Amino acid sequence: MTMTITRTITTTTIITTITTATTKTSIINLHQYHHNHHQQEHHHKPTPPPICHHEKQAIPQPIPHTTNYTLPHTTV
């Protein structure tokens, strides 16, 4: 019984950690984009938006994590 409770807590902690990490990354990306946008405004140069930055953001991060913590869970 105690083992089951411990496992549940561990899984929840992992999920929370991943969610927090993903949120922090998104905030950093948004801040970086905002900063780049401001720099462009100050220089008054019609530079194209950073395409690579958007492509990186478009990758859904939680998917690989889901596979990681589901596999050990099913084996247990």
UniProtKB/TrEMBL annotation:
Residues 35-46 have a biased composition (Basic residues). Residues 64-76 have a biased composition (Polar residues). It comes from the Eukaryota. Residues 35-76 are annotated as: Disordered. This is Uncharacterized protein.
